[in-house]
Amino acid sequence: MAVGIFDSGLGGLTIWDAVQARLPDQEFVYLADSAHAPYGVRDADDIYDLTVAATQRLFDAGCDLVVLACNTASAAALRRMQEGWVPSDKRVLGVFVPLIEALTERQWGDNSPPREVGVKHVALFATPATVSSRAFQRELAFRAIGVDVEGQACGGVVDAIEDGDMILAEALVRSHVDALKRKMPDPDAAILGCTHYPLMKQTFQDALGADVSVFSQADLVADSLADYLERHPDKKGSGEAAFLTTGDPARVSDRATQFLRRKITFTAA
User: Fold this and answer.
1) Same domain for 210 and 103?
2) Cα separation, 175 vs 217, whole angstroms
3) Interstrand relation of 65-68 and 3-7 (parallel, antiparallel or unpaired)
4) Does residue 203 share a domain with residue 132?
5) pLDDT at residue 109, rounded to an integer
6) Phi/psi at 152 (5° precision)
7) Could you give the CA distance from residue 216 to residue 197 in angstroms, rounded to a whole number?
């Protein structure tokens, strides 16, 4: 059985790349909703409708498990989907869980009362929609107390990365870090709350300073998904991967190949 990975664009490829390296025998179907990207500037209902349509496309492709490798979709649509739309024989997972597990050093199934954790001042870098949803703060509050989270909406970064303009992306990251530091001068941890941002992790780290712990999603989500798949061996497949896009396959393939620095070929969804 294939595992579906969905993102509005190419950022989820950082998740696929990390998981595929961990589980080379796993079969994947990756769907990029490139025709409607970026999601980070859309309203919650629009994001929900687009995410449901993309997830259904992956179900139709034979995926019983779909990972929303998109923080905006996870923030704005996942809870609503799980409460009223996802069929009982399917699973849809988001990308916040592994981050919060790492930040709070407690497993997701740990339902004990919230407690103090090692970090006190956390910078959250994400898309405007993810920041405005406050989904990360809501989920964190169930597990930790005394943590101050300051969100910074990083407009333009996803577009620059998708366009392959890493010089602009680096300049934007440094500008957003400067803006965050005006609100929170001394964060002790930073969350890169977008699956595109692992490509800019070193820039974030340099701008924040070596004493700030930077949590990047690709490896954390890969670890969590690998653990799940290893506990469900029936979900393993041929080791092949299919890449689908709602956009122009040739253009998206070119961008994806630049993005991962290896040949990736998309076909029309």
Assistant:
1) yes
2) 21
3) parallel
4) yes
5) 59
6) -125, 115
7) 8
- Side-chain half-sphere exposure of 115, counting CA atoms within 13 A: 9
Q: Is 194 a catalytic residue?
A: yes
Say whether pTM exceeds 0.90: no
Shared-domain flag, residues 129 and 202: yes
Which candidate in 194, 199, 208, 269 is catalytic?
194
Catalytic residue among 2, 70, 93, 147: 70
pLDDT of residue 138: 87
φ, ψ for residue 27 (rounded to 5)?
-95, 140
Q: Give average pLDDT by consecutive 10-residue segment, the chain, 269 residues.
A: 91 91 90 92 94 97 94 91 94 86 73 85 92 88 90 93 91 98 96 89 97 88 80 68 96 92 95
- Residue 40: give the domain boundaries: 3-94+219-268
The per-residue pLDDT for 108 is 53
Question: Cβ(56)–Cβ(92) under 8 Å?
Answer: no
User: Closest Cα partner for 109 from 251, 227, 266?
Assistant: 227
- Who's near 206: CB < 8 A, 6+ residues apart? none
pLDDT of 239: 77
- Our answer to whether residue 63 is catalytic in this structure is no
